[in-house]
Design brief:
By secondary structure, the chain is of the alpha+beta class. The chain has twelve helices and ten strands. The chain has helices spanning 2-18, 20-26, 31-40, 58-71, 73-89, 94-101, 204-208, 227-254, 271-303, 310-336, 348-360, 367-378, and strands at 109-112, 118-122, 125-135, 143-151, 157-166, 171-173, 187-197, 201-203, 258-259, 265-266. The longest helix has 33 residues, at 271-303. It is globular, with a radius of gyration of 21 Å. The protein starts with a helix and ends in a 10-residue tail after the last helix.
Amino acid sequence: MSEQVLEAVRALVPTLRERAAEAEEARRVPEATIGELAGTGFFRLLQPRRHGGYEADPVLFYTAVKEIAAACGSTGWVASVLGVHQWQLALFPDEAQHEVWGQDPEARISSSYAPTGKITPVEGGFRVSGRWSFSSGCDHAGWVFLGGMVPGPDGVPIDMRTFLLPRSDYRIDDVWDTVGLRGTGSNDIVVEDAFVPDHRTLSFASTSVLDCPGNAVNTSPLYRLPFAAVFTTTISTPIVGIAQSALDSYIKVTRERFRVSYGNQKVAEDPHAQVRIATAAGEIDAAWLQLTRNISEQMRCAQAGEAPSLKLRLATRRDQVMATQRAIKAVDLLFENAGGRALAAGNAVQRAWRDAHAGRVHAANDPERALVMYGQGALGIEVTDVMM
């Protein structure tokens, strides 16, 4: 069934490409697109079978994301983050899962994990207040995941948790107006003293040690993967798809392009353009191969009932940030050689350039943090970062 979902997503690609400009203009993915993606079953790929999902291989999920992003970067980004949240909800206590999916098996969740709000422990749960930014696709979601630091009695943080809130407990502040990924609708979430019960929270420490409350009821190996691996790959994959979009568009235009100022030279015969195509294609292939290799190896460990080694976890983060860097390099190579007409509004190469660089600034794509972790591990230095 999962393969049928992928084929249905591929059939939507031409339509998504046609709507790319519409998404940018509206600063959000069109409602029709979300409905059609839902109709393919895409948002249920990582959802537990007990709640109507497919428990698909994550590589299949990422393949679908990459192809969506190659049609429209903003749509790929939103599809990726909304789609992965079904996986994260499966890690929450069973009561939270029933609260969301029991009411609506098609429910969607957006997120903002940076712990920018105020968390106050109270009997039975927490009081939550504040503003969280960059919640991609929030207009298409009825719930939200928010990150927050839990203070101890002395006010010093003792835990970082994800808090799950229904739409009735927050409002969306429309502030998203950017040069790249314009169509993601990554607006602010504002919460004014909402109560979140204990069962609608999840500690990042639990996700790091692969021992979450949801594992008691969702026993598939899919839910024994590290959050850091799954989430950060969710952020890198759309950028690889965006780079593929730039390459496809560049090749298509270059076949028919002439440089008048160079004696009407046919650009397709320019060896420098040919080298750029080969180099960009190689960078994209390398990015994708490493991303999928690591996730497949993580799944192999989970299926064997093994915890992934520290080396694998660190390599997954290393290659995830390197995948983004390779995708950016590919897009830059092509954009620099695409000619003045590539600057025109609506041109696919310039849109890919803007979208890829916008995605690069996400915290998950910070290369120094991930590469330092890998270097520490290689040198035998203890790695304490939970995002590994």
